[in-house]
Amino acid sequence: MTSISTLWATLDTTVQRWLLQNPGTMVLPRTYVNQVAAGAGQVLHLDEHGEYWLSKEDMLFLKAVRSQSPHSTKSPSPQVRSRAAALRSDEPGLDPHREALDQ
Questions:
Q1: CB atoms closer than 10 angstroms to residue 29
Q2: Cα-based distances in Å from 59 to 38, 65, 97
Q3: Rounded CA gap, 51 and 63, in Å?
Q4: Contacts of 13 (CB under 8 A, 6+ apart)
Q5: pLDDT digits over 58-102, tens only?
Q6: First to last CA, the chain
């Protein structure tokens, strides 16, 4: 399955900005899903409404990117990627809804 973290460097800056500026969201709206497909050439796993539900890994990755710089759209540093991976392994029972709001 394709994830936001693997596509981050190829995402359109408007999609990146929207993801960073909406930390409580769990769903990438259809408008932005279409931009991902057009810009990255990748198709995300969509629900029946054409929306992409962010995974736990996506949310941890975005939280790590936000902590690096609240308005950064650059590809995150290796330290940020390793921090997101550490968060994934340290918190196996993490509720992504609660964690997204704990920014």
A1: 14
A2: 22, 10, 9
A3: 20
A4: 73
A5: 999 999 999 886 555 555 555 555 555 555 555 545 555 555 555
A6: 26
Q: Is the pTM of this model over 0.85?
A: no
Q: Report the distance separating Cα 103 and Cα 90, nearest Å.
A: 17
Could you count the other beta carbons within 10 Å of the beta carbon of residue 48? 5
Q: Which residue has the tokens 């995150």?
A: 76
Contacts (Cβ under 8 Å, ≥6 apart) of 21: none
Indicate the average pLDDT of the chain: 75
- Cα separation of 3 and 45, whole Å? 9
